[in-house]
Amino acid sequence: MAQDDDKTVDQLNDEADIAADYLEGLLDIADYDGDIEMGVRNGRPMVQIVADDDTDIKHLIGRNGEVVDALQQLTRLAVQQKTGERSRLIVDVDGFLKRKRQRLHDIALDAVDEVKETGEPVDLKPMNSFERKVVHDVVREEGLKSRSHGEEPHRYVTIYLRSNADASDVDDE
Predict the structure, then answer these.
(1) CB atoms within 10 A of CB 113
(2) Which domains are assigned to the chain?
(3) For the whole model, what pTM was predicted?
(4) Dist. CA 34–CA 59, nearest whole Å
(5) If both were cysteines, with which of 31, 43, 150, 160 could 155 make a disulfide (CB 3.0 to 4.6 Å apart)?
(6) Could you report the per-residue pLDDT of 92-129, keeping only the tens digit for each?
(7) Regarding beta strands 122-123 and 156-160, do their DSSP bridges make them parallel or antiparallel, or are they unpaired?
(8) Distance (Å, rounded) from C-alpha 124 to C-alpha 128?
(9) From CA 132, how far away is CA 126, in angstroms rounded?
């Protein structure tokens, strides 16, 4: 992660430009109309695809965001090929990530409430690293402890009261 901290805003903007060009090419090939918005947020390059046609956008999101995730991975590879460096680029389609982050926030708060009520740890369903990171952040903000367990793709988060968590437990995300 320190790698991105060392990148200048110009380098991050260059990554966003490369990503936007790559995604415009993919949209042309797929014959999808869409506008590309780009910038830098929280020290990471960000590219968002926005379209007028809800049908096309739904195809670019996919079931549970599978297509968005694939687009992000492919675009990161395209950026890496041009720059020679790994990118932490974020690709979003029509605000999908914002909506997903809000749903995860709500799930985490429900689990936090359950832990506070029962005093017992709560295991959440398996999640990808982005999802686990969102949950860990919410749990930390609420003053509880969380830890990821298991192997990909079945890795999941357990939420604990601070008093029930081993002092050596550290969020791994």
Answers:
(1) 12
(2) 9-94 (3.30.300.20), 99-160 (3.30.1370.50)
(3) 0.77
(4) 12
(5) 150
(6) 999 999 999 999 999 999 999 999 999 999 999 999 88
(7) antiparallel
(8) 12
(9) 9
